Amino acid sequence: MSLIKKPVTGMRDILPEEMRLRRYVEGVIRDTYAKFGFTEIGTPVVESLENLNSKQGGENEKLIFKILKRGEKLKLEEVQTEKDLSDSGLRYDLTVPLVRFFANHTNELPSPFKALQMGYVFRADRPQKGRYRQFMQCDIDILGEASNLAEIELILATTQALVTLGFHDFKVRINDRRILKAMARYGGFEEKDFDSVFIELDKLEKIGLDGVEDALMEDGFEKEQVSRFLQLVKKVMEKSGLDALKVLAETILPVEGEEEEDSIAEVKENLEEIIRAVEETGSHGFDLVFDVTLVRGMSYYTGTIFEIAMPQYGGSCGGGGRYDGMIGKFSGQNTPACGFSIGFERILMILLEEGFQVPESSGKMAFLVEKGVRKEQLSAIIGEAQKRRAEGNKVLLVRMNKNKKFQKEQLASQGYEEIREFYREGLRN
Fold it and tell me: Are residue 330 and residue 371 in the same domain, yes or no?
């Protein structure tokens, strides 16, 4: 019986042409982020289950690939619960590992610390087109910067990377979790119900205001609460940009307590500063817009949140936000933190579908060598290939196939601009 040649369900092989594009995209992203002062780090793909299950990853905590205990740790006769079988798992994102990394190495790192991570993450999700159980994530984070300079730098760096890759006319939607909470309070919801309300609001783009209303009613909320909350949402949505933020503040502030009033006024000013600062840089190719309906699913977000919207390509291509309370759970010392993640796999799929061609920095040549050439001939051919490589060319040295025409067609499709044929009697072209 032959072994299984297909990948495990939810995983996939990557062919050379896509791998070349992956490496190119990674290079553009790394080069762009380096210009903004981000430095790359690496963390293990295996993390402690205690960390992965620390209520930081939202729904992702239900999708962990768990690893069985090894050797003496695994005592099957003593197993009573799932915890007795497993103590570690594969990471489902790069944020939890980053926070652990920072808490462990704080004294060795600059402050603020601008981190870049690129690596595979794993989720035991149901596979579907464009969604696999192993996929690449690309994150930048600024740790130790409490001011909105962190948000401004993250937005500028991420959008610059996308523009360099050829993306234009996209939007960066921005909101703040504190605004969402103030809106929920305005509607009369209790704090314990906020996340349930936000989950339904997050579906607005797909099901509309009426659909959100029906969903909230089905969740058992009072009609008066739902109506008051959605009327505010609708009122703000009728305006755009900073005008929407102004209307929101004017509506909420009169009914907030003194402490909450100061907080909302501060949030409004903070968002206005971020939007104006990004606009005043004169950056092109995207718009930064306030969007009161932006939720973002991760429960660890504490303030500003943002998302890249590319409706022409079918939806979101990245996002992030501020998570000031997360590092303290590892180190005991609260540290401000903010991050932005590019949807690497989504970006790559778009480029592949658009037929993007990786630009060549040097010539590509192929040397086809006929079978049976003399040893001294082969040595001379190898020497010529080495000479061309030293000059900066990419040279493929391979044996000539029987079906030479098909072989040359394949090489041409791979971008080889010059094909030289070496026979027993010498070079023919």
Answer: no
